[in-house]
Specification:
about 230 residues; alpha/beta; 7-stranded mixed β-sheet; 7 strands; globular
Length: about 230
């Protein structure tokens, strides 16, 4: 596949992400292992960027669909795949424009913190077929704790204040199960494994394990639709 020259800073970032994925075969192998036993027909990458996370599944014959809220993602993805391999759309993870049980695998890496978690997870479950897999990477609380200290070290109080607001919003979400709407406090929240399991039980999904790139700041989970 071609590796086009970046046209702007965001495209440069997306191409770096693509190249980092190619440079680490363990990530592709982990994706295929998580999807083992499934008939791979269609895969959705939510918050797709350039769509590199779909690459190992597309190489196995699946058709990929990348969806991202940022309009700058689609053009890069379209340059990396042929129309026969993948399509790219702009949209929200809280209202997925797909029929029920449309996908065998759904990938969502570090996009859910910026969504209404309950709505987005319910939509993910809806568009996955029974026994389908969700490969989900989240921001845990320590991710934002580190951002607080990074802001302090760099004398950037706004950076730290944002992280503190997310920690507060995440704590409220953890205690009450309610996430603040955008603009009121901050929509962005962290997730914990315990909270994620609670949300998954509501929508008929179950955690099956972790992916190799999991860590305490950004855990990566393999989730199955029951």
């Amino acid at each position: 596949m071609s590796k086009p020259e970046p046209l702007n800073e965001y495209e440069d970032y997306l191409l770096q992400e693509w190249n980092q994925f190619l440079a680490d075969p363990s990530r592709a192998n982990a994706t295929l292992e998580a999807a083992a036993g499934l008939e791979l027909r269609r895969v959705l990458d939510l918050g797709c960027g350039a769509g590199q996370e779909m690459l190992p599944l597309i190489r196995k014959g699946a058709f990929g669909v990348g969806l991202d809220y940022d309009a700058g993602s689609g053009p890069v993805g379209k340059r990396m795949f042929t129309p026969q391999e993948a399509a790219f759309l702009r949209g929200s993870g809280e209202t997925l424009p797909f029929r029920d049980a449309s996908f065998d695998v759904l990938v969502c890496r570090l996009a859910i913190p910026y969504m209404d978690n309950a709505k987005a997870l319910a939509e993910m479950s809806r568009v996955l077929r029974p026994q389908g897999r969700l490969l989900l990477k989240i921001h845990a609380a320590p991710y934002y704790v580190r951002k607080v200290w990074t802001g302090i070290r760099n004398a950037d109080p706004l950076f730290s204040i944002h992280a503190l607001r997310v920690l507060a919003a995440g704590a409220v979400y953890t205690l009450t199960g309610k996430q603040a709407p955008a603009g009121l406090w901050t929509k962005e929240v962290f997730l914990s494994e315990r909270l994620l399991k609670r949300e998954l039980r509501k929508i008929g999904m179950e955690m099956r394990g972790t992916l190799p790139d999991t860590n305490f700041r950004t855990p990566s989970y393999v989730i199955a639709k029951l």
